[in-house]
Design brief:
Layout (H helix, E strand, L loop, with lengths): L3 E12 L2 E12 L3 E6 L5 H8 L7 E6 L2 E2 L4 H6 L1 E4 L11 H11 L4 H15 L14 H12 L6 E5 L7 H16 L3 E5 L3 H4 L4 E6 L2 E6 L1 H7 L5 H16 L1
Parallel strand pairs: 3-8, 3-9, 6-7, 7-8
Antiparallel strand pairs: 1-2, 1-4, 4-5, 9-10
Helix pairs in contact: 3-4, 5-6
Subcellular location: Membrane
GO molecular function, one term: ATP binding
Pfam family, one: ABC_tran
Length: 247
């Protein structure tokens, strides 16, 4: 049996009369690359904030890395990595200073930080850039660096919110190589993206519509279910069905 590192049961978030996420239920396995998709306003970011321990649910239940989203949020934060849609490192610090700072925040020893720094610099080809300000780096390098720092402490789960927005296709492919490497190390990757070709790289995909999870399956099974040639077509059919239901 696969270890379940995310378990949600009817997880709901209300803001007054508005229901942002409506009884979402799903499980994610250890080492899985799980795509969490939906149009703007579908409830993705609200759901991710609850899973990261940043926002308390209104009702339902969830455990993240075995910890409860209501009562153990600090333990959740210690066992996850997070990379936001907007760049998440300090641009006025050098690459080295960022790595050392976040390594300390994650509780790594000085020796571990030194080893991780050397490994990161070699893997990303940044050995000659370590004393440069992060703000001076090209966007693609910034994104790859941000991801590498988010998994510096080998978290059980890393949450990625639109991580490749604005970067070129070649850099996006390189970024996904880093994701695959993390998954090979049994780090679970929970990723939102609006690039449907990236959705095809995930082991499984959920698609949210108006706060609910409308479908959840592998990319191959979803394309078969909707008789589609791509995830773009699947997403388009779901969006069209939602519009018909609203009219």
């Amino acid at each position: 049996m696969e270890e379940k590192v995310i378990v949600c049961d009817k997880l709901t978030k209300r803001f007054g009369y508005f229901i942002a996420t409506n009884e979402i239920s799903f499980e994610v396995n250890k080492g899985e690359i799980f795509g969490f998709l939906g149009a703007n306003g579908a409830g993705k970011t609200t759901a991710m904030r609850m899973l990261c321990g940043l926002s308390a649910p209104t009702s339902g239940s969830a455990t993240i890395a075995g910890y409860d989203v209501y009562s153990e949020t600090e333990k959740i934060k210690r066992n996850i990595g997070y990379m936001s849609q907007k760049f998440s490192l300090y641009e006025n610090l050098t690459v080295l200073e960022n790595v050392e700072f976040f390594g300390g925040i994650y509780g790594l020893t000085d020796q571990e930080i030194k080893e991780k720094t050397e490994e990161l610099a070699s893997k990303l080809g940044l050995k000659s850039e370590m004393k440069k300000l992060v703000g001076s780096l090209p966007l693609g390098w910034k994104q790859k660096l941000s991801f590498s720092v988010a998994v510096l402490h080998e978290p059980k789960i890393v949450f990625l919110d639109e991580p490749t927005g604005g970067v070129d296709p070649v850099t996006r492919r390189q970024f996904w190589d880093l994701i695959y490497e993390a998954a090979d190390r049994r780090i679970t990757v929970f990723v939102t993206t609006h690039y449907m070709d990236e959705a095809e790289y995930c082991n499984r995909i959920s698609i949210m519509v108006d706060g609910r999870i409308e479908v959840l399956d592998t990319p191959a099974n979803l394309k078969k279910q909707f008789q589609a040639n791509s995830m773009d077509e699947v997403f388009y059919q779901l969006a069209r069905s939602a519009k018909r239901a609203d009219s």
